[in-house]
Specification:
The complex is a heterodimer. Chain A is α+β, with helices and mostly antiparallel strands. Helix content of chain A is 42%, strand content 18%. In chain A, strand 12 (414-423) and strand 13 (426-433) form a beta hairpin. In chain A, helix 6 runs antiparallel to helix 7, helix 6 packs antiparallel against helix 15 and helix 13 (360-387) packs parallel to helix 15 (455-462). Chain A is globular. Chain B contains eight helices and ten strands. A five-stranded parallel sheet of chain B has the order 7-6-8-9-10, with helices on both faces. A three-stranded antiparallel sheet of chain B has the order 2-3-5, with no helix packed on it. Classes of the chains: A alpha+beta, B alpha/beta. At the A-B interface, helix 3, helix 4, helix 7, helix 8 and helix 16 of A face helix 1, strand 6, helix 5 and helix 6 of B.
């Protein structure tokens, strides 16, 4: 096959599989001596399948997927930025991960339209991101997102690390989802090595992953309450979030659960006794239940969320929307349910009733459902750990052979994927795909009739991290 | 129960730090110490560290640069006789070299000059200090810890410290992140827009050295090359108490002897 034929075959194959029901879950390119390997990731029940095309050295383009697979848009731009490989026929091949001072023409036209650049340094304590808002003055017909300012060169940085150090960088790819990233990375290594973690290690992993989920969802609630000017609610939920981070800190020494997950298991058992953890959890659960009920009964607050930033079920399904954003729009892609791992295998995980309204209020409701379930899972994990046989090891030797492993975990933002290539115990390629990267592309789509004052609500209701997008 | 009453129901939740030591801060596993630092170390312990924070000099004496340390604990796990966790959150330093433990040589004269210069600048702030945070390529966790400063447990408003939206109102820039190249212009622009005098704090190990993220083609390995830093606060991410300590250190408002 010629280069062009290979590239066309790859694009056709991937498009057909997506049309056949597989969910498009990622695209990345790897430079090698012999050329460029283009890899698509397809999620199927129980599995994430890589689809490779080896393009010989000198190949400079392939047929763009974005026309038939809309969610490929940002992935193709990222591949183009990082490798120069050009997706032919991509509708808007603007730079995503490399800074560009070039003015981009406005997408929408009409009388009196202008562009408002907002960021990268914005009011309040936010991650750096620039929104270019195209507006006639009040509503937001189009919005462009520039994340390049925060690009840190993460993917290349992975390539010099040992397998053991890789998890330390994975924890810092998207710092507010440290545990989920460490898990997805470790799962990739463990699958390659054919290793199963022990029962206690699996439970400790669940414990920290769910604490991370609670903290993240509380952070979203704080953002929404802040946007609505509910100062007491901001304080209350700020206090609850602090207590969650402190509990994580007391359990492992890091408020973000860092250093817990290692390939093959966990570094240590909880530093707190089960009784102490239970007491803290009970107090937290009771306080939260009361404040959440009050928040969700505060009419002035709900008025701002209802019908704000709606994501239609069709769009969410077509895009393969992940995490709470997907679940609020009728798409449930929970990796814990559909590709279970670690302690989730033995714990009861309710299949939540999907919600379908798709607005900011629905996204918050989904998060509260998840908080309730997470607290329950944490409690179950603490109880199960208390009874687990102490003689089981918490970490098993994990010597990964040469090859590629794919791992996943359900972060608070949604499914995180890692594709890790290992040669002689070192990482030769690591592609981290955060849920934030996948979902942020939907953000410009949800401003149907919403205006500037809704912006803060919609942004908070997405609950994404720019670090995990800009990499 | 309506919100106003909810605000009262749990009483005062706020730490009394810095007026009184805070139990949580005092017991926090905040840093790595070299144990028995005067004993030479024949083994290559520097290789234990993924971020090259461990140093070994000609006399085989060991040091740890907390400005590079990401607190992963690899050294403590491998050599518990040599490295240990240090409790506390008073970790900031007005000099980059001050983050290296143990301190073997001190340049008192230049340190004194730095302190005089800093004290001269902060005198103009009076008792109200406005802080502008800038993310120069963080992993996102640093922002959570900066935001936490306004929650009821830390409530920095009680100390006259405010997070402000505009650099025009700011006295102090609190910069997080590894110094992403795409942020060098926005950081310079923010500094230019900030009122004078101004104090700059590098918040977190990423901001100090790039931590685990650097070296990388897209970061400067910390913000030191982008901007003149007055106080360095280590941590990956830095805890709210460490950030508060760093701010108070810059302002010269820490009680004289606390330990």
């Amino acid at each position: 096959m010629t280069t062009a034929e290979r590239a066309i075959a790859f694009a056709d194959d991937l498009t057909q599989q997506v049309a056949g029901g597989a969910r498009f879950a990622g695209l990345y390119a790897t430079s090698a001596d012999t050329g460029m390997r283009l890899t698509g990731l397809l999620a199927a029940p129980g599995e994430v399948v890589p689809l490779d095309a080896m393009l010989p050295a000198g190949a400079s383009s392939y047929p763009a997927l974005t026309g038939s697979v809309p969610a490929a848009d940002w992935y193709e731009r990222a591949v183009h930025d990082l490798t120069g490989l050009r997706p032919d026929g991509h509708p808007r091949l603007e730079p995503l991960l490399v800074a560009s001072s070039e003015a981009v023409p406005r997408r929408v036209g009409g009388h009196g339209l202008f562009s408002v650049p907002y960021g990268p340094v914005r009011g309040g304590v936010h991650e750096s991101v620039e929104y270019v808002i195209e507006t006639p003055g009040e509503d937001i017909p189009h919005l462009r997102i520039r994340v390049a300012a925060k690009h840190r060169g993460i993917q290349e940085r992975f390539q010099s690390l040992s397998v053991a150090d890789g998890v330390r960088l994975a924890e810092r790819v998207e710092g507010i989802a440290s545990v989920a990233h460490a898990l997805a990375y470790s799962h990739a290594v463990e699958r390659l090595a054919g290793v199963e973690v022990s029962r206690p290690a699996g439970l400790v992993r669940v414990l920290h992953a769910e604490l991370e989920r609670v903290a993240n969802h509380l952070d979203v609630a704080i953002g929404l309450a802040e946007a609505a000017g509910l100062v007491v609610a901001v304080s209350r939920f700020g206090w609850h979030k602090e207590n969650v981070l402190r509990l994580a800190g007391r359990l492992c020494g890091s408020r973000f659960g860092r250093g817990v997950v290692v390939p093959g298991g966990v570094r240590s058992l909880p530093l707190l006794t089960a009784a102490e953890a239970r007491t803290t959890l009970e107090t937290l659960t009771a306080r939260l239940a009361s404040d959440v009920a009050e928040l969700m009964g505060t009419a002035t607050f709900l008025d701002r969320l209802r019908e704000t930033g709606p994501l239609s079920v069709e769009r969410a399904r077509e895009w393969g929307a992940l995490g709470p954003i997907g679940r609020a729009s009728g798409v449930d892609t929970d990796a814990r349910l559909h590709r279970p791992y670690d302690g989730y295998l033995g714990l009861r995980l309710d299949v939540r009733a999907r919600r379908e309204a798709g607005d900011a209020q629905e996204r918050l409701r989904v998060r509260w459902d998840e908080v309730t379930e997470a607290l329950h899972l944490i409690r179950s994990a603490v109880d199960a750990l208390d009874g687990a046989a102490a003689k089981e090891p918490i970490v098993v030797p994990t010597a990964a052979p040469d090859g590629r492993g794919i791992g996943w975990a359900e972060a608070p933002q949604g499914e995180v994927l890692y594709a890790v290539d290992i040669t002689d115990g070192s990482i030769t390629r690591c592609y981290p795909r955060s849920a934030s990267f996948h979902n942020l592309g939907l953000f410009p789509d949800v401003f149907a009739g919403d205006i500037f004052t809704d912006f803060a609500f919609i942004e908070a209701s997405f609950g994404l991290s720019i670090a995990g997008v800009a990499l | 129960m309506p919100w106003p009453l909810r605000g009262l129901r749990d009483g005062i939740l706020t730490s009394r730090y810095p007026r009184k030591p805070d139990e949580y801060a005092e017991s926090w596993r905040g840093a790595i110490d070299v144990l028995d630092p005067d004993r030479p170390e024949r083994h290559d312990v520097a290789a234990l560290c993924p971020t090259a924070a461990i140093g070994q000099d000609d006399q085989h004496l060991v040091s740890v640069d907390r400005g590079r340390c990401i607190l992963c604990g690899a050294c403590v796990g491998a050599r518990p006789d040599r490295f240990g966790w240090a409790a506390g959150t008073d970790l900031g330093s007005p000099t980059r070299g001050g983050l290296v433990v143990p301190q073997r040589q001190e340049d008192d004269d230049s340190l004194a000059a730095l302190r005089v210069d800093l004290a001269r600048r902060v005198r103009a702030f009076g008792r109200s200090v406005h802080v502008r945070h800038v993310d120069a390529g963080s992993d996102g966790a640093d922002e959570w810890e900066v935001k936490a400063l306004t929650n009821p447990t830390y409530d920095v408003h009680r100390l006259g410290i405010f997070l402000t939206a505009s650099p025009r109102h700011a006295d102090l820039l609190l910069i997080t992140g590894a110094g992403a190249q795409g942020m060098s212009e926005p950081v310079a622009g923010t500094l230019q827009a900030t009122a004078r005098p101004v104090v700059i704090i590098a918040a977190g190990t990423d901001a100090i050295s790039g931590g685990m993220v650097s070296p990388s083609y897209a970061t400067a390995g910390g913000i030191g090359d982008l901007i003149d830093v007055d106080v360095w606060v280590p941590g990956s991410p830095p805890t709210p108490f460490a950030l508060l300590h760093g701010i108070l250190l810059a302002l010269g408002r820490l009680p004289e002897v606390r330990r």
